Amino acid sequence: MMLWLWLSLSASGLSGCIAGAATDSRAHVYQVQHYGEYLAPSVRKASAPLSPGSRVREARPLLFRFEDLTILPQAFDARRYARVGESQVAFYNKTISVKQAEDEIIDEHLPEVFYYGDLEVARHTVGNERLWLMLGRSRQSTSMYWLGVYDSRGKALYRAVLPFHKVWSLEPFAEGVQINGSAYAERVIVVR
């Protein structure tokens, strides 16, 4: 038994994989680590205390506390739209596409490492504005999240690539989105 285990781990080590898991290329990891953060002029960030129970790592979709949660699998062969309220959303070849009526309001291409996981899409109301929230995950070996917040017309308000330890859960609050990490929380505040 031990010989079989040793041989299987050795063989997978030679191929750079363990139990079928692979890694992203160094160039792609470098690209995502230097993605930067975008804050629209109408958005600010602030630190916040962690709320009770927020130190728990969520096993369910991280946007489950928000309205109209939809999970879109990555499609490579054709655009498949899912209905989210009155809009249609697709996640095709690392590109997010949101249509209202026949107008495409969001067309966002994600960094290469976000081809692996599903895309979470949800809505959140701040004042009179219905925001779009989108969360993409890289494979576990890279451990990154891409978070995008857009206004109802598709204008980017916040975009960032965040490491795994900074995104344990996401919570809505009256002025925006709270990102709970392992040690502290950050609030993305939409000023309206």
- The SS-based structural class is mainly beta
Identify low-pLDDT runs. Answer: 2-20
The rounded distance between the terminal residues' Cα atoms is 64 Å
Total strands: the figure is: 14
Note the run of SSEs as H and E. Answer: HHEEEEEEEEEEEEEE
Tertiary shape:
globular
Compute the CA-based radius of gyration: 18 Å
Mean pLDDT: 82
Number of helices: 2
Which strand-content bin applies to the residues? 35-45%
**What characterizes the major β-sheet?**
6 strands, antiparallel
Helix content: 10-25%
Question: Major sheet: order of its strands?
Answer: 1-11-10-9-8-3
Task: Write a concise keyword list for the protein shown above.
mainly beta, globular, four-stranded antiparallel sheet, 192 residues, 11% helix, six-stranded antiparallel sheet, 14 strands
Task: Explain what the structure shows.
- Mean pLDDT is 82; it is low at 2-20.
- The termini are far apart.
- The strands form 3 sheets. The protein has a 6-stranded antiparallel beta sheet, with no helix packed on it. A 4-stranded antiparallel beta sheet has the order 2-14-13-12, with no helix packed on it. Strands 4-5-6-7 form a 4-stranded antiparallel beta sheet, with no helix packed on it.
- It has a domain at 24-41 and 62-165.
- It is mainly beta and 192 residues long.
- Helix content is 11%, strand content 44%.
- It contains 2 helices and 14 strands, in the order ααββββββββββββββ.
- 28% of the residues are buried.
